[in-house]
Amino acid sequence: MEDNLSSIHLTEEDFKSALKDIQTYMDITVDDLLRIYDLAMKHALVRHQETSIVKTIMTSVSLTVKPDEKLTDIYRLMAENHVSGLPVVDDSNKALGYISESDFFSAIGPAEDSGGWHILDSIIHKKPLKKKFGNTVRDIMSETIYSVNLDDSVKKAVDLMKRNNISRVLVCDSRGYFQGVLSKSDIIKCYLKGEYKE
Fold first, then answer.
1. For 9-51, how does the pLDDT look when each residue is reduced to its tens digit (9 = 90+)?
2. What secondary structure letter does DSSP report for 126?
3. CA angle in degrees (0–180, nearest 5) for 186-191-194
4. Are residues 164 and 76 part of one domain?
């Protein structure tokens, strides 16, 4: 395990869980101890994930879009800010959905090319693109909202991402007002830095 995870403290329970994972009699060697350490650290990370709260590691995002904004402006905004998607909110900041590069690709190309490869191929080979979407965010945004509450556990957020095969969830308060985003990279960064706060 990485030294930068040193802020995660192993407990006796983590070692007991690690020993159960081995499921065999051991004549202890250095390799065995390292394996026990790795397994115990794995259990400690899971414990931290279960007790860490979303609001401590989420990214507070001030960049949002409204459903009636022009798609050309939004794609430019995404490119300039090096983001692959943006939350869609109403005038009171209530979450309405999300718009991503995938939404643009899906709206332009065939359904089986959700990665947008035909678009990139068209650009490189200077072939015309067939536009089949409207002009505003509302026309192509995803209205399915995958969200968690500020005080939900990180584990709940990870389970939601895994279950729906998504890379991020919106973070909302108890009334559904947008507060930020929690992404896979937020979770990974915090584990690597050992910055989870309970």
1. 667 777 778 777 877 776 766 677 778 888 887 887 777 666 7
2. T
3. 120
4. yes
Looking at the fold, whether 19 and 99 belong to one and the same domain comes out as: no
Q: Give CA–CA dist 146/195, Å, rounded.
A: 25
CB contact at 8 A, 57 and 169: no
Nearest to 113 by CA among 126, 125, 104: 104
User: Among the three residues 12, 28, 51, which one is the final residue of a domain in this structure?
Assistant: 51
Distance (Å, rounded) from C-alpha 5 to C-alpha 46?
Answer: 13
CA distance 109 to 10: 50
Same domain, 41 and 124: no
Closest CA to 42 of 12, 4, 1: 1
Which amino acid makes up residue 153? S
CA distance 2 to 62: 33
First to last CA, the chain: 21
Instruction: Quote the tokens at residue 21.
Output: 């994972």
Tell me the per-residue pLDDT of 169-192, one tens digit each, with 9 for 90 and over. Answer: 999 998 989 999 999 988 888 767
